[in-house]
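This is your field. Have a critical look at both lines of this record:
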Amino acid sequence: MIIDDFLVINENGLYCKTGEFYLDPILPCPDAVISHAHGDHAVKGNLNVYCTAPTEAIMKHRYHKNAGKNFFVRGFNQPFLLNGIKITFIPAGHIIGSAQVLMEYNNVRYLYTGDYKLQDDPTCEKIEFVKADVLITETTFADPSVKHPDAASEIKKLNAFNHHVLLGSYSLGKAQRLISLLNEHCPQRSVLVHHSILPLNKIYESFGYKPGVYELYNRKSMKQVSQNLVYIVPPLTFDSYIRAKNVVRAFASGWQRLQVVNGVQLLISDHVDWDDILTMMAEIKPREVWTLHGNGKYLREYYKNQIPVKLLNAC
């Protein structure tokens, strides 16, 4: 029987009452199961951290000695027990090391997705599908009106310009995917990266996921008008270069609000859209759906009288 309060939200985040641990807590806690290393899912200062090896490496790079006291690293599809709950990390396809968390208790399977994507991405593990009784899914873009375009088609837009491109990007996950896309679909352009992106690229490479060919940014290169360069920078740097001249500005994101006042729209998202969530539902075949990180009301309306949809955000 599905336990209705198997997962609850409190001041520290998403809590598994039955197993007495947190999933991607927002504040430090004794036992934290971390789905991936983005800062909104992996906070520093937890006592015991359960995660994949790439997640550990990135957290230790970003937080140093404050990353967590004890790390318990587990591979994909290698079950382990935590306070009576059988846990298995399943590839989520979001960034390197990103995991769905399958929790099994009393013959019921609860699948927490974390952030995930279905689109192809050679810079991280491909998503895997497993059956579950309860699907706990992110709903960042769970709106029937949201359809993510093909990433290759989006990046090819840059081929229409002869200027350098200042490309805003999140440093972890998105930047590595963009390098790969540019190498494949804009081969005439050289890729430069901000210094903060370089160590993350090295972590990717250490786990066998090479983003592609790139160089560290230098001012001299950007001043060479004859070259077709793309300079990938994190959001704060992108915003600080608002007056940059002789460049095309672009920000790679699924959020429309980040596309304004740019020279070109690049709607490249690392999250699932509406159709992807429906595909996920068809693969997982859950008896119930619990939603997080967004608005699950459209899913509740869509599956009305078919599958119960609980909005954990509203608890």
User: Anything to note?
Assistant: Residues 7-144+271-314 form a domain with the Metallo-beta-lactamase; Chain A fold (CATH 3.60.15.10). The radius of gyration is 20 Å. The first strand starts at residue 7 and ends at 10.
